[in-house]
């Protein structure tokens, strides 16, 4: 089991962390070299059970500040949104097309992939969807009972909008996700972690790259959350593992599933030149 909170390139033991609120509207300006931002705060943990990462997940929630705003329409100045893919306790397997807008209006998030869509399912549903019986034991849900994955791809893009505002573009100050069975800290080509979060600004500029920590054994858990000084993140690109879902998970191929998403309340964007 590993726990760490990083500020910049330093690692410290986490006790508690509190963050202030943000204003409901974010002024997005052209990036320039004179702009100075604080380094993001990185929350990460990995271990064999849900309990082994729970404290870091809770610390990330606390750092974002405010309440879980659920399905309340925005704009709201503080708080967070969460998606646990469980549909109020559903055990059904649900396959949806891309882009997936099931959480666009109520929680301000759209999900897209270059693959054929997405699946929300318990582990037996994943095994059936990807025609791989080993998935029933290879993965485990953090918040029972369903996990989330793209189909025919291992890349998901999460884009943010004002909840209740339709297609009003927004940014967030924080995004974190729980992953099931991240086995490899480095991919088979030695290019860094097999599971990675890439954070982008409103003009498509890369803000930060975060490698998700690995944990040995089957059905392990990993968490990565990144908190910025203000709402600057327009979308997050998530690479899960180094192999497409359906592939056998072995020493060369790391297949990874996703669970809970936690992100700061999306704030409306006004672009200025």
Q: What do you see in this structure?
A:
This protein is mainly beta and 273 residues long. The chain has one domain. It has 4 helices and 18 strands. The chain has helices spanning 51-64, 104-107, 123-129, 135-138; strands spanning 2-7, 10-12, 25-28, 41-47, 80-83, 94-96, 109-112, 117-121, 147-151, 155-160, 170-171, 174-180, 196-200, 206-211, 221-227, 235-239, 257-264, 267-271. The strands form 4 sheets. Strands 2-1-4-15-12-17-5 form a 7-stranded antiparallel beta sheet, with helices on one face. It has a 5-stranded antiparallel beta sheet with strand order 7-10-16-13-14. A hairpin with a 5-residue loop joins strand 13 (196-200) and strand 14 (206-211). The radius of gyration is 18 Å and the shape is globular. Mean pLDDT is 88; it is low at 7-34.
What is the gist of this entry?
With 273 residues, the chain is mainly β. The chain has 4 helices and 18 strands. A hairpin with a 2-residue loop joins strand 1 and strand 2 (10-12).
> How many domains, as an integer?
1
For the sheet with most strands, the description reads: 7 strands, antiparallel
Secondary structure category? mainly beta
The fraction of residues in strands falls at 25-35%
Please give the number of β-strands. Answer: 18
Shape: globular
Task: Count up the helices.
Answer: 4
Residue-averaged pLDDT, rounded? 88
- Unreliable runs, pLDDT <50, ≥5 residues? 7-34
Cα radius of gyration in angstroms: 18 Å
Measure the end-to-end span: 47 Å
Order of helices and strands: EEEEHEEHEEHHEEEEEEEEEE
Spatial strand arrangement across the major sheet? 2-1-4-15-12-17-5
Kindly state the percentage of residues in helix. 10-25%
């Amino acid at each position: 089991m590993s726990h760490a909170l990083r500020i910049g390139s330093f690692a410290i033991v986490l006790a508690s962390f509190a963050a202030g609120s943000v204003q409901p509207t974010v002024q997005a300006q052209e990036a320039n070299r004179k702009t100075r931002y604080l380094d993001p705060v990185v929350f990460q943990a990995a271990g064999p059970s849900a309990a082994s990462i729970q404290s870091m997940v809770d610390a990330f929630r606390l750092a974002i500040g405010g309440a879980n705003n659920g399905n309340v329409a925005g704009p709201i100045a503080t708080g967070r949104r969460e998606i646990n893919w469980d549909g109020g306790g559903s055990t059904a397997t649900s396959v949806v097309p891309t882009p997936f807008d099931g959480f666009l209006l109520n929680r301000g998030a759209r999900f897209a992939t270059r693959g054929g869509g997405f699946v929300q399912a318990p582990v037996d549903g994943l095994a059936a969807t990807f025609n791989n019986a080993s998935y029933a034991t290879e993965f485990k849900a953090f918040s029972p009972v369903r996990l989330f994955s793209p189909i025919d791809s291992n890349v998901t893009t999460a884009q943010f909008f004002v909840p209740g505002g339709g297609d009003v573009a927004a940014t967030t100050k924080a995004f974190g996700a729980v992953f099931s069975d991240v086995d490899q800290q480095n991919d088979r080509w030695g290019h860094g972690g097999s599971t990675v979060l890439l954070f982008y600004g409103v003009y498509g500029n890369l803000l930060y790259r975060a490698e998700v920590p690995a944990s040995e054994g089957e059905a392990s858990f990993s968490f990565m959350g990144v908190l910025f000084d203000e709402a600057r993140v327009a979308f997050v690109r998530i690479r899960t593992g180094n192999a497409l879902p359906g592939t056998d998970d072995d020493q060369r191929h790391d297949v990874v599933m996703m669970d809970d998403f936690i992100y700061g309340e999306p704030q409306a964007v006004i672009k200025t030149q």
